[in-house]
Amino acid sequence: MAGFAAAVVLTAGCTLPAFAPTTDAVGEAAAPGTTPTWHACPEVAEQLVGRGAPGMRYECARVAVPRNWGGGATTGATAGPGTGETFEISLLRARSNRQHDRIGSLVINPGGPGASGVDTAVYLSFGPSFGGLPAAVTDRFDIVGFDPRGVARSSPVKCISDADLDASFGYDPDPASQASFDGFADLNRRIGQRCGDKYGDQLPLYGTEQAARDIDAVRAAVGDDKLTYLGYSYGTLLGATYAQLYPQRVRALVLDGAVDPQQKLVAGSESQAKGFERAFDNFARWCAANAGRCPIAPDARAAVTSAIDKAKTSPVRGRGGREATAGWVFYAVISSLYTESGWQELARAIDRLDGGDPAEVFRLADAYAGREDDGHYSNLFDANLAVNCADETEKPTREQIRQLQSQWRQKYPLFGPALAVGMLGCVEWPGQRDPYPTGRAVGAPPIVVVGTTGDPATPYEQTAALASMLGVGRVLTWEGEGHTAYPQTACVTDAVDAYLISLTVPRAGLRCPAR
User: Pairing with 264, which of 8, 130, 398, 400 sits 20 to 30 Å away (CA)?
Assistant: First the structure.
């Protein structure tokens, strides 16, 4: 069970391992503005983990929120898509039997977009031995996770077939010929068309600003006058948006794995290409220095590049005839870079693939994709596209993306082409856009923005950018590897805990060592 926290965090524009939800919401959703009814739900933890955390109890509830907060739904107006209709937001509250001097609720979002906050609250309840929250926090707060609109148990958006997701993940990450590039573009167009046919003018309602307004309904539902919030990765964008919309309702916000809200599609994709390339270089250096634990030493880059190239023409077959195509090998690499502990797994997977066994490659890639053993997918990527594309106003042409694919191949050889062609998902997405605000959180208290120097998915440079944009951000740096930092080391944990509990802001310029 180690590493629950790292395994459920997702980032804007890209995704990493997430556990598929298996528990449906139970009971009626409370009407907007009313107090929800909480009921015991130990079965959520049992289905996710096999048991609940010792000394923790779990309760669930649902609240109804307007589909369109800007359409006058709460006042009975009739204009705009979704007006007068509601989404149901599922909540889970984990409460320690040792709780004392309760401060309130710590609301969690694991990122994505598309990851389940309900699941994450369960994982984090298991304590530091399993990558969860420290007792200092769980003894003072209820841990509240919510599935954002469109995600998992909260009126989930589902419009991409398992076959199309298999085709997308398995596709060549760097389609060289024009015909191969066009084939990937057409696949994304088909996916977008099917989602547009199903949801029509409702698609913009899955955007970040609407979801940030839902967070205020969650705050009210748990009975807190002000919000205490822990957001990872894309969750930092949600938290930053909340702080701009409701600065006077912020008690404390920790934004870990910062997304720069001012970056548009092209700049954000290139930033991630650079971040993953840098993280892979760090892995390769570790591999060369630790040959006893890295079977693809001394040249990990050559080994991984060769594995992807071979998979383009001669993919290894696994059980049931499933082929480890270049796409699946690529996503196994992506998946393993989100945590330093994944480095050894990656080396082992590539080594075993070379020996004719793709099982480890599939395990890593499937965890990333939310793909189950039977080939069925959660709605992780449906929600990911719906949210990212509702937010995004920049739409480069196919021709521009093709040019960037070539340019980024030279600058970021392993990850640049895939991050370039990955933009086709939103380029081919239908519907209007609903961009989130990108300004200061005027009137909000200090907000802690945590960055990791070796972060592949939300590169460290974005940390200061988010803190500066908000105007009240205080940067906390972890000189470590992987995606997000809290609560992985004592230095980071102590600083964040003091802020959450006592509102003690980390000193300016605080940098925490890797170990």
Answer: 8
Catalytic residue among 125, 391, 483, 497: 483
For residue range 376-421, list pLDDT tens digits in order: 999 999 999 999 999 999 999 999 999 999 999 999 999 999 999 9
First-to-final CA distance of the chain? 21
Question: Is 233 in the active site?
Answer: yes
Give the pLDDT score at 267: 97
238: tokens are 């949600």
**Residue 483: active-site member:** yes
Catalytic residue among 233, 271, 335, 378: 233
Chain-centroid distance, C-alpha 171? 22
Q: Which residue has the tokens 């991630």?
A: 272
100 is catalytic: no
pTM beyond 0.90: the answer is yes
List the one residue out of 354, 362, 432, 364 whose CA is nearest residue 392: 432
Among candidate residues 294, 333, 295, the one with its CA nearest the CA of residue 311: 333
The distance of Cα 238 from the centroid of its chain, to the nearest Å, equals 11
Distance CA 154, CA 113 (A): 13
Q: Which of 142, 166, 455, 497 is catalytic?
A: 455
The pLDDT tens digits for 426-464 are: 999 998 999 999 999 999 999 999 999 999 999 999 999
Locus of tokens 């398992």: 162
* Residue linked to tokens 């930033």: 271
Q: How far apart are CA 407 and CA 409, in angstroms?
A: 5
**CA-angle at 401, arms to 399 and 407, nearest 5°:** 110
Q: pLDDT tens digit string along 65-101?
A: 999 998 543 444 446 788 889 999 999 999 999 999 9
- Nearest CA among 231, 251, 298 for reference residue 11: 231
Q: Give me the phi and psi of 196, to 5 degrees please.
A: -65, -40
Long-range contacts from 310-318, C-beta under 8 angstroms, 24+ separation: 312/172, 316/353, 316/356, 316/357, 316/358, 317/358, 318/357, 318/358, 318/359, 318/362
